[in-house]
Write a structure and sequence with these properties.
Tetrahydropterin Synthase, Chain A, 2 helices, 139 residues
Length: 139
């Protein structure tokens, strides 16, 4: 059995795409109401959970949402396409999750031999545009 956890977050930000052809509308500064989804999984549960939703939020809200919200994404990501935003979020999440929840003093540490997987990160810029990057990477 594989348990899959999904949690959704939102933030507002501006960006422009520096690598599009001249005259492309995305080459100009514009903003979006971003929606991101983080997806984790495990074959085993600890205390009935893959991971506490609160712990996921800690790794998303502080280092990602509070940093990017109402900012210009180009200040953080060289070419902030939806694909590159997914990669930025995944890298930041993985680092923060490992730093916070794989410390010997944290309750999740004793379950470190239990495999928790970052399955995917999704970024939506609009209701009609979405990018999903699948990782299947053990945290």
């Amino acid at each position: 059995m594989n348990y899959i956890l999904r949690k959704t977050y939102e933030f507002e930000a501006a960006h422009w795409l520096p690598e599009v052809p001249e005259g492309h509308k995305c080459g100009k500064v514009h903003g979006h109401s971003y929606r991101i989804v983080i997806e984790l999984s495990s074959d085993e549960l600890d205390k009935g959970m893959v991971v506490d939703y609160k712990d996921i939020s800690q790794c998303i809200k502080g280092p990602i949402i509070h940093v990017l919200d109402h900012q210009t994404l180009n200040d953080f990501i060289e070419n902030p396409t939806a694909e590159n935003i997914c990669l930025y979020i995944a890298k930041t999440f993985k680092h923060d999750f490992r730093m916070n929840f794989y410390r010997p003093t944290h309750p999740w540490f004793k379950g470190r031999d239990r495999r928790i997987t970052l399955r995917a990160v999704e970024v939506s810029e609009t209701l009609k545009t979405n990018c999903r990057v699948e990782f299947m990477e053990t945290l």
